[in-house]
Amino acid sequence: MPSDDSRALDFAAIEARWQGRWYGDRVFDSEPVEGAPKYFIIFAYPGTSGYLHVGHMRAYTYTDIMARFMRMKGFNVLFPVGAHATGNVSITPAKKVERGDTETLAYFRANGCTEDELRKLSDPLEVVRFFSKVYVDDYWKRFGFSADFRRFCTTIDPGYMRFIEWQFLKLKERGLLFQKPYMGTACLKCGPVAVDPSETDISSGGNAEKQEYTLLKCRSGDRYLVAATLRPETVYGQTNFWANPGTEYVEIDVEGEKWVVSPECAEKLSHQIDGVRITGNIPGRALIGTGCKPPVIDREILVLPASFCDPNVGTGLVTSVPSDAPYDWIALRELQEDEARCKSLGLDPAQVRAIEAIPIIRTPGFGPLPAKEICERMGISKLGDPRLEEATKEIYSTGFHTGVMNDLCGEFAGLNVSKAKDRMKAAMFDRGEAALFYDMSEPVTCRCGGKVIVKKIPDQWFIDYGNREITDLSKEHAASMRIMPPEYHANLPGILEWFQERSCARLGNWLGTPLPFDRRWIVEAISDSTLYPAYYLISKYVTSGELRPEEMDESFFDYIFLDKGTQADRDGVSVRAEIVTRKYRKGKWEHIPKIADRIRRDVEYWYPLDVNLGGKEHMTVHFPVFLMNHVAILPVKMWPKGILVNWYIVMKGGKISKSKGGAEPIPDAVKLYSVDGMRLYYAHSASPFVDVEWDDGIVRGYRQRVERIYWQYLDAIAAIRDASPPESRMDRWLEAEFTSSIDRMQSFMDAFDLRAAAGEIFFTIPDRIRWYERRGGQGAAMKRILPLWAQAMAPFVPHVAEELWERLGHKDFVSTSLYPAEAPETDREVAAEEDYIVRLMGDLAQVRKVTGIEKGKVWLYVAEEWKCEVMAKVSGLHASGTRDTSGLIKAVMQMPSAKAHAKEAAAFVQKAAKDIAAGQAPSPPKDEHALLSDSTQFLSRETGFEIVVQKAGEKGIHDPKGKARAAAPGRPAIYAEAI
């Protein structure tokens, strides 16, 4: 075979040709086939917020690889796709286009959007339409996905919205919907948004948590300096109060009280407490040196300066507990040691130095002042030390879980910190000394660019995911599902247990489905994405016009999914039977074939979903509610079977983002790396369950590998096209190795180990073919394995596989061909013989390295027959449980062949037993001498040595150094001489 692998391959032409044929012939449109096993797989659909990037294509490609593999295994595969338009994902870019945002316009233009298209994108519905088309045509079809595109839908299609209305009617019917006042997350511009790792409604801050602060009202004259704390149980340890002299604070009226907080806090409070208004401004500098009296403790404390008081966090004011707060400990020490600063702010240095930490919590592993101890242990002495955050987390966590309030804590002395926290908070609330305040743990930005805060909603709708019955059933079912990776399978029950009530609808001008019983509210983006796999079974009928949205009422869906109104359930519901046989046309109902019955049969055939594949951001958000909604609404037979979670493609520095960029557009990437090159990169570069850093050079390497395999394959076709070579042992070896690789590939695919499966097809098999050629294979086996190799490639590199399949003379598609039902019988003995030759070549390379002989003659000494007999005996005895050396020697010495070599045989038994126990005893070929004699020409050519094969123990052999004595079965002795 030619060694030149640099021949150019026109990937674009191959991709266009086969995509044209697949989609032109509608190869992947899926319909039920009676008696055929089915496989229903989806990926979590993307939001129509922007262009996708190479990171998204990783998960989507995994889905297609599995769909193609299962189709070729004989399964009837349904792989539908859709897009998520609910919420503000499309409203935000539309608004930016409308106001002429230069960055947004440049973003669209850089991705190939024409000016005509761009002008339309000020309309959110046009944004949905535009990106839906881009996703289907420029991404999924461009990657050759074997999806049934007839079923494409978005979450704002009229039919889909009718489906979601039905879902919420069923949740309400089950008593799983309720309303109550709620502190929810909201954008100051757009209104309520969901904050979670999926970042459906937001552009940053998906890992932020809503935190409940206790506001401590510290009396200062006729007003209160208000500090926010997450640790109200530490109030007994307050020694001073912190304010930022560089911040302009405000005085606000809160239900008749005067509070001093930061302006940012005042704005947030105005959305949580009615009637909050600003009544004045107070420079932070003016607060320094004043006093205030905090709750609980009967003493006044001094207000001191601290730069770490952030006006965006809490109230911008902080009460100081240096015994248990590392920031407070370091800040107080720094100020006490800086007399000049104290004086510049009008403080008495002696008064500041007199402040001492007050021990309040007994924490195992720490003395009376845990903050002091941990700072000294970690070598922290400055406020700017980033390790302060780590120290704070350790102290807070250890103290909360193991600490006990000490005797200075009044009525709470002796209580565990975890209990004292709530009791102390309740006591302060009862006395009017504290209030509640909610804020985010980190900044959160809406997709519109607005700030996200916590806002009071008086009548928020919730789904009760804390329902005991639903939780228990979901946990029980999760245990029976196939969930990858295994760690997530183990963790999911705990996540389900943690889930409680979740807000499910938003007020405001959102895209999405109105609640059918309260149309002011729009179902939010997570809540309308739980049952959607079921809608794919209906969507093609709506798209084709066979079913109209107005026909899809509650009773229609009850009939389709819950069997209500079927023959088995028609007593007293004859009206339903009548409706399902009629169709709405031109303002009237007319009798038609039972379209609802057809759809119900589709549901019965395709459901449940076999695999839901999505990114790791869905582990704590989408996947739990996906499962719980199925359990809550659908019968057991329709509950999902599997979840597969994939990790991210990342750039140096973090996750790729649709909004932040970080990689070339997908159409450009395809030109650089080819579709099949990228598909192989996704499959083979790493396990699906780890993040992968995008590396241009590595991706190019996969394109080059696909090219090399393509030319290797065509060269093999050319070499055997008109030949009828004889069968040889190397043909038996190649078939055995190939069959083993295919068997392993299938096992790896069944375990979703795509990396190992791709390794067999694109690395191991090419290596085996090259070895076959080096060993003089003439091509007889190649005629049989080339079609199977193309089939094995097809799930991963379908375009190139189709091209190669056609080059073999096939008229059908390799994508729809079936893997052989049974693997052919193979000669494993010849495979073991080649392993022996490979090991021997390694030994000969070591001989060259040790002796320094580059050109020479090598004698290979094959072990005597008696050693083979003894080795076989020892192996048998070891397998049957005889392991002690004396017992082995005794048994072996009963053999006539061993008796003739008694002294040498005893030593050999000891060595053989040790090797067998360690798993280091090689399996000798059936006729080791014959194999080596037949391979001398090959070994000479490969090693450059002249090879001579001799039997150890025979008279007259050339053995000047007595090397032959070391020969063992499967491990010939070697002697080399320079020439």
Description:
By secondary structure, this protein is an alpha/beta fold. It folds into four domains: 39-205 and 449-540 and 606-673, Rossmann fold (3-Layer(aba) Sandwich); 210-440, Isoleucyl-tRNA Synthetase, domain 2, CATH 3.90.740.10; 696-826, Orthogonal Bundle (Isoleucyl-tRNA Synthetase, Domain 1), CATH 1.10.730; 842-978, no CATH class. The strands form eleven sheets. It has a six-stranded mixed beta sheet. A five-stranded parallel beta sheet has the order 2-1-29-30-22, sandwiched between helices. The chain has a four-stranded antiparallel beta sheet with strand order 6-5-21-23. α25 runs antiparallel to α28. The longest helix has 25 residues, at 696-720. The chain starts with 10 loop residues before the first helix and ends with a strand.
Tell me the layout of helices and strands.
Elements: H1 11-24, E1 38-43, H2 54-72, E2 76-78, E3 82-83, H3 91-98, H4 102-110, H5 115-120, H6 124-140, E4 153-154, H7 158-173, E5 177-187, E6 191-192, E7 202-204, E8 210-220, E9 223-229, E10 240-243, E11 248-254, E12 257-261, H8 263-270, E13 277-283, H9 284-287, E14 291-292, E15 301-305, E16 318-320, H10 326-336, H11 339-344, H12 349-353, E17 361-362, H13 370-378, H14 387-402, E18 404-405, H15 417-430, E19 434-440, E20 445-446, E21 452-464, H16 468-480, E22 482-484, H17 486-498, E23 501-503, E24 505-507, E25 514-515, E26 518-523, H18 532-544, H19 554-562, H20 574-579, E27 582-585, E28 588-591, H21 595-606, E29 611-615, H22 622-633, E30 642-646, E31 649-651, E32 654-655, H23 666-673, H24 675-684, E33 692-693, H25 696-720, H26 729-750, H27 754-774, H28 780-793, H29 798-807, H30 828-851, E34 856-862, H31 865-879, H32 885-892, H33 896-899, H34 902-917, H35 928-943, E35 946-951, E36 973-978
Parallel strand pairs: 1-2, 1-29, 3-4, 9-12, 10-15, 22-30, 29-30, 31-33, 34-35
Antiparallel strand pairs: 5-6, 5-21, 7-20, 8-9, 8-19, 10-16, 11-12, 11-13, 14-15, 17-18, 21-23, 24-26, 25-26, 27-28, 31-32, 34-36
